[in-house]
Design brief:
Elements (H helix, E strand, L loop, with lengths): L2 H21 L2 E3 L8 E5 L17 E6 L5 E6 L3 E7 L14 E5 L11 E10 L5 E9 L9 E7 L23 E3 L5 E7 L5 E11 L2 E17 L4 E4 L13 E4 L8 E8 L5 E7 L3 E6 L16 E4 L12 E8 L5 E7 L7 E8 L14 E6 L3 E8 L5 E7 L6 E7 L14 E4 L4 E9 L5 E9 L2 E11 L2
Antiparallel strand pairs: 1-30, 2-30, 3-4, 4-5, 5-6, 7-8, 8-9, 9-10, 11-12, 12-13, 13-14, 13-15, 16-17, 17-18, 18-19, 20-21, 21-22, 22-23, 24-25, 25-26, 26-27, 28-29, 29-30
Length: 473
């Protein structure tokens, strides 16, 4: 064959290979569980049959250890639950009782455990292999939104409680089963552990100001091995936000005018020792950066206040206070991403929003339109966490549909913010697991695979759900 005849053939093969690669942006990893999916029954009914923020049957958080095993944490009604999976999705028999470690809620002083419901909201695998857990407990007849109690536990790598956590003194009746944070507690959304063992949490609690209940967003940092007053509580880090009000050692924002809904939902510690925090402020997207000492970093953002607030306008271009910030991620260039949902015209159709900022907090105008991208979904939706793959693909976990028909959903976007149409059906993976289901947390594992966790409700029982996808490079 002559050389001039080889060129078109080579060109055809090259184009074919590129198209094939782009058309298989992600597939379920069939080496994980059953065709890429693992469903684990919790063994108990959930807190409620509807998949709302009070639902305890979800995998609220996942983490991967150095051996590639996955830790999934959540709740089972009155108990909290930790499950560890081998890399192929099987329960790890070396962890807890056949792969599960379950803890009752009675440690918070309730005389009747059936009146308490708890769930673990955050998990971190420590450098030595121990596992730090952060969770919430509340009365079953109360909403989790009414400032539940917060607790912390540390486990050995085999799932047994580490009773040396916080350097317990010799209590007459033995050490407490859990470390309980003194009031105000509140909802807990995320946790980050530093190399020196200090750990930071973020969330919100309700507080009455001038006769009106307002949601206060907070960031708190704790010392790792100090027992402070009252007994069985962890001491705040004295170097973090020492002059903050109304509570010392807690950086907080509470709204002075309606809407009063605030929450910090995700945090990340930067290499400089500063902390990124993301969530929503008065139903607007919020990203902020804190200094090492918990003060707002005056070198961050457009106005150099340490805070970036993004309004989502309605169809008439007016501010509508109609956005809920939920997830945050960073890429290899240090750019900051935020996601959430908005309902600008107060209709059933909701919008997934993506924002990208430069490392200094200024909008990245090369992304979407002036740093913003959106996808309108003609259904009720709740957006949760997000992850950015090394290849630049942006993944978002969400619940899609109303409570009676909610579905596990994953959305994929190109590096420029447009939907990645080669990802399943036009950039969307929708999976109706059981009667109703959710997607909650998301991560990229050590081998570049996408892992998404959530929960399902079927036949009166709650189950953990984990799906793993192979992502094209």
């Amino acid at each position: 064959m002559k050389l001039q005849n080889l060129i078109p053939v080579t060109l055809f093969l090259t184009v074919f290979m590129v198209c094939a690669a782009s058309s298989s942006a992600a597939n379920l990893d069939r080496s994980f569980g059953q065709n890429g999916t693992v469903v684990t029954k919790t063994g108990n009914p959930p807190y409620g049959a509807s998949l709302t923020d009070e639902f305890t049957g979800n995998v609220w958080a996942i983490a991967e250890d150095k051996q590639g095993r996955l830790l999934a944490v959540g709740g089972t009604g009155s108990d909290s639950l930790v499950v560890r999976y081998l890399s192929d999705g099987r329960l790890d028999p070396s962890f807890g009782d056949g792969g599960k470690a379950q803890f009752p809620a009675a440690a918070l002083g309730g005389t009747n455990p059936e009146k308490w419901s708890n769930r673990i909201r955050a998990v971190s695998v420590l450098p030595g292999g121990k596992i730090l857990l952060a969770g919430e407990e509340a009365r079953i007849d109360s909403s989790f939104a009414r400032s539940p109690k917060q607790y912390f536990m540390r486990l050995f790598p085999n799932g047994m409680r580490d009773l040396s956590f916080a350097n317990f003194p010799n209590f007459l009746n033995g050490p407490p089963k859990q470390i309980v944070l003194p009031d105000p507690g509140g909802a807990l959304y995320d946790m980050f552990v530093q190399r020196d063992g200090r750990f930071t949490i973020t969330g919100m609690y309700s507080q009455s100001f001038n006769g009106k209940n307002r949601n206060v967003a907070y960031v708190r940092r704790f010392m790792p091995e100090i027992l402070g007053p009252p007994e069985n509580s962890i001491e705040f880090d004295p170097s973090f936000a020492p002059r903050s009000e109304p509570f010392p050692h807690s950086t907080e924002i509470y709204p002075s005018r309606p809407p009063f809904w605030n929450a910090f939902r995700q945090i990340e510690l930067l290499g400089s020792g500063k902390t990124l925090v993301a969530g929503n402020l008065r139903n607007r997207y919020f990203v902020g950066r804190l200094t090492r000492t918990g003060e707002w970093d005056r070198t961050f953002g457009i106005n150099k206040t340490g805070k970036v607030v993004t309004e989502i306008p309605n169809s008439k271009g007016k501010a509508c206070f109609c956005a809920v910030g939920s997830g945050m991620a960073r890429d290899s260039k240090g750019r900051i991403y935020q996601t959430g949902w908005s309902f600008p015209d107060y209709k059933d159709a909701r919008t997934i929003n993506l924002l990208r900022f430069r490392p200094n907090g200024l909008p990245d105008r090369s992304f979407g339109r002036a740093g913003k991208a959106k996808l309108t979904v003609n259904q009720f939706i709740r957006v949760r966490r997000m992850a950015v793959h090394p290849n630049g693909t942006i993944f978002v976990a969400a619940w899609l549909g109303y409570q009676s028909a909610q579905k596990f959903a994953v959305f994929a976007f190109r590096p420029d913010g447009r939907p990645l149409r080669s990802f399943f059906h036009k950039g969307r993976y929708i999976s109706p697991i059981g009667e109703i289901s959710t997607a909650e947390d998301i991560l990229i594992d050590r081998q570049g695979r996408l892992v998404v966790s959530g929960g399902t409700f079927k036949d009166g029982d709650a189950s953990f759900v984990i799906k793993r996808f192979r992502v094209g490079q």
